[in-house]
Amino acid sequence: PPLGPLRIVEPHLPSLSDELAVQRSDSVYVLGEFADGWVLAMNASQNNECGMIPRRCLFFST
After folding, report:
1. pLDDT tens string for the chain (62 positions)?
2. Where are the alpha helices (DSSP H) in 1-62?
3. For the chain, how many structural domains are there in total?
4. 44: domain range?
5. Strand partners, 41
6. Do residues 13 and 20 make contact, with C-beta atoms less than 8 angstroms apart?
7. CB-based contact 7:31 (threshold 8 Å)
8. What CATH number is associated with residue 9?
9. Strand pairing of 58-59 and 49-54?
10. CA torsion 18→44→60→30, rounded to 10°?
11. 45/25 Cα distance (integer angstroms)
12. Residue 5 contacts by C-beta under 8 Å, 6 or more apart in sequence?
């Protein structure tokens, strides 16, 4: 199952076609995580668009 919703704490502007634009305070669900520091995410705040974002953009509570 997806992980989330999680809050975006750092915006990301795509530089490749598989990347997802996110803004601070967007809510996203993580669909997959990769060893290179990127995650596949679905942006619930932007019409459920999916794409890759850097893991550092996400807030993981402890």
Report:
1. 899 999 999 999 999 999 999 999 999 999 999 999 999 999 999 999 999 999 999 997 65
2. none
3. 1
4. 3-59
5. 30, 51
6. no
7. no
8. 2.30.30.40
9. unpaired
10. -50
11. 9
12. 27, 28, 29, 44
